[in-house]
Structure to design on (103 residues):
């Protein structure tokens, strides 16, 4: 299946993932378990089957940034331009949706 065909499905599941993250974060806060949310932008992987978007970042860059933020103790990690999209989704959800749909 082509990655672009999965994007609408993944976008629809994101609220469910956020709810599950919050639920388990509350339920497990008394246990020595950490729940960490990592949101990556498009990453250049074999999954793209040679059709890598121009906005994709390298796997090395994505992993390096994730590890750096894990070492800082962050539990909500947004890599690359996902940080901007997160703020757009809070300030202007319709604009964020248009940006996602253009990818």
């Amino acid at each position: 299946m082509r990655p672009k065909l999965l994007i609408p499905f993944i976008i629809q599941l994101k609220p469910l993932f956020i709810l599950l993250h919050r639920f388990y974060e509350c339920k497990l806060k008394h246990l020595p378990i950490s729940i960490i949310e990592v949101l990556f932008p498009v990453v250049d992987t074999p999954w793209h089957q040679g059709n890598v978007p121009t906005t994709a970042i390298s796997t090395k860059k994505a992993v390096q940034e994730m590890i750096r933020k894990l070492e800082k103790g962050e539990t909500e990690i947004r890599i690359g331009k996902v940080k901007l999209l997160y703020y757009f989704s809070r300030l202007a959800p319709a604009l964020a949706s248009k940006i996602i749909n253009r990818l």
Summary: The radius of gyration is 15 Å.
